[in-house]
């Protein structure tokens, strides 16, 4: 039996303890909770900024318009001719006071030019102010839609669209460039000074109106080309969905028959000066069932779905029921995909 002195014991103990710590893996420093939750803080911060921007500039104003009783000023993008006593006619550029949102398709408004009050189609107006003199350039679309439209073949250098911005109280200018390399789209933010009410595309030049701004950059030569050439032509307004589901048969003019099937016959037709499709249901179908299905389809609304505009006929009508839908010029998707 041997023993160890106190000094030697402490010396050996510290050496053993030190070697043990060197053999063990180093403990990771304590991670703060937000680090554990968000490994990529920069990406999360950017996402949160986008969410706040969308909430502030898109969602909250939409709820305000939907549930607030106050009125809003609007401008007519297209002319519209009333066909019932409850509707009011519009001319392009008319100033309107929108008082009631009946649905996404129809609004109740007063035309300040004629002082008449009635329903107007939402697709024919814009809530954006300051665009009365630039209606040919203005389109209520987002950035992605603007790029898709401007990248269509055949458009010249400088073709542009003036559109809403994702930032509050701002507009955006989307411009096509074809001179240097491949075709590309550039987006410019148009700001309005809240003090002077002047518009700017850059920090150097101010304008009293959007019309002056567009005219300046259309005339000004930047390098070898003007920044802007001409606005992208707006498409015609979409076919209007009936407010109350039912369409007066006298408003529909049938054209040539283009298809026959188990459901019935399909015709090209005209409704409110727009080309549409009229599907005449066969007499073997239950009339009440057809009307019930029609009411359900009338409630569906999506940019990628062909809309049911309305139905001609009811349970007391002896004539065949007509389904009036939007016209798809290129026909069925299945047939289109099979073409070269």
UniProtKB/TrEMBL annotation:
This enzyme's EC code(s): 2.7.10.2
Signal peptide residues on this chain, from the entry's feature table: none
Ranges for domain SH3: 69-130
Origin: domain of life: Eukaryota
Keywords per UniProt: ATP-binding, Kinase, Nucleotide-binding, SH2 domain, SH3 domain, Transferase, Tyrosine-protein kinase
Descriptive protein name: Tyrosine-protein kinase
Stretches assigned to the SH2 domain: 141-232
InterPro entries: Kinase-like_dom_sf, Non-receptor_tyrosine_kinases, Prot_kinase_dom, Ser-Thr/Tyr_kinase_cat_dom, SH2, SH2_dom_sf, SH3-like_dom_sf, SH3_domain
UniProt-recorded Gene Ontology molecular function terms: ATP binding; non-membrane spanning protein tyrosine kinase activity
Name of encoding gene: SPK1
Catalyzed reactions per annotation: L-tyrosyl-[protein] + ATP = O-phospho-L-tyrosyl-[protein] + ADP + H(+)
Residue span, Protein kinase domain: 252-340
Family: Belongs to the protein kinase superfamily. Tyr protein kinase family.
